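Hey team,

Sharing the Hydroxylamine reductase run so nobody has to redo it. Sequence (538 residues) first:
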Amino acid sequence: MYCYQCEETASGQACIKVGVCGKKSEVAELQDDLIYLLKSIAFYNMKAREHGVNEERTDRFMLDGLFATLTNTNFSKENAEKLLGEGFDIRDSIKQKLVSKNISLGELPEVAKVTPESIKGIDTSFNAPGNEDIRSLRSLLIFGLKGIAAYAHHAYVLGFKDDEIFKFMERSLVATTDDKVGADELVGLVMECGSMGVTTLALLDKANTSTYGNPEPTKVNIGVRDRPGILISGHDLRDLEQLLEQTKGTGVDVYTHGEMLPANCYPAFKNYDNFVGNYGGAWWKQKEEFEKFNGPILMTTNCLVPPKATYTDRIYSTGIVGCEGVTHIEEKEDGTKDFYAIIEQAKKSKPPEQLEEGSIVGGFAHASALSVADKIVDAVKSGKISKFVVMAGCDGRHKERSYYTDFAKALPQDTVILTAGCAKYRYNKLDLGDIGGIPRVLDAGQCNDSYSLVVIAQKLAEAFGLEDINDLPIAYNIAWYEQKAVLVLLALLSLGVRNITLGPTLPAFISPNILNVLVEKFNIRPHTTVQEDLKVLL
Ligand code: SF4
Ligand code: SF3
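Structure output:
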């Protein structure tokens, strides 16, 4: 195995024996094969699309396949094998269709000829020999595509899709197999990946808000009640909706965990009186917190940590998540899911052990943030707010991430943090106060809601009559961990945002030359110390 896609990669270089995340080498290798197979599918599907003979199931498979390989999503060997089998079937059926219609395929590249047998002899890893910068750009592009796939998947299950997104994915995957596509062209694709990221995030925003309403400023309870509960984690709102419907009147409560926290702020979910609030913190604390929850836990997407034996029988996966020993709830033909088994187990469980009490405030996605735009603009003009600091992204298990808590605490009283993603758990329970009624931490929601931060920035630029988004009093101190954050970063770059501070470490897959390009073009810098970064950012 050779995996270097996340921030916690071994020794800051690559996981080569086993993943720091718990991914086994055989799974990592099968997932590399799967990416290779997706490139083969992309080759044929581009042709199929040109001739109008492409099929819907290919689109869904593209999303599933890429999403399954995202960090902390799927650890199951069986699942990777199943996806490979399904992928070859899909690929062969597209090929068959093209051949039967006499559609010319031209000279077939190697990737188009791969078979279930031959793939075993191909080095599909990200460490395949070749030019370091090309490898770096191809990796960056593929990791950005994984982010697109995850966000597009969430929109897709709510009935929203955009063919342009699929076309871009296919074109990019094929480009990573073509030695004629050089560094300049790859840089272009990486930037396009960022703007396609903005398109995808906008689509997801539309899917979420038109289905569940616009998030509202909400005080989310972080304590517990004295009834059995189900904990739901990950990012999939449709799973939450179905779980709330099915637990109605059963005497079983529902709590969110990790990235599901912002769901408490949607009007559509506020009507369920068994929807209690949020339990625990960011994903990496789950071993400790799931133990104490006592009831069953439903993982709808990343981030899953392979569970301890003591609570494996209480963990359920669904959608694209998977792990050996964990019960998987399949989606039915009509797209619904039956959570009966989870609810029955919950009924027999003890209520959750209380971890903390009180509440945290969320729900500042673009609609509610912009509803107080006048107030915000006035506060900036009168000097009450000197700066906004975007501290969006991911949390992670490394101790150095206490930097983000210290940074939030050290920010002057006249600054406001804009956040999205699970990075917020490093400071969302600190009492940072407010500025004339505007909370000093404005939480737009999941990493899926990063689009809100873009809309807020664009609207503020309009309100201040600024042409360049970089002239706004906004600084960026982004924390990354997995590939959705890679995409969000590319999305910001594609919008022309400069001077981003990135941490806790820079991606291992960025080669020194490519880093130079990013520094020269966008002035990206690694974070240093709280004091030094405060000086630079403010
Ligand atoms: Fe290592 Fe991260 Fe890959 Fe897991 S996802 S194997 S921790 S680089
Ligand atoms: Fe977090 Fe996994 Fe990235 Fe959605 S839950 S932000 S890390």
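The domain at 218-347 is CATH 3.40.50.2030 (Rossmann fold).

Ping me if you want the raw files.
A.
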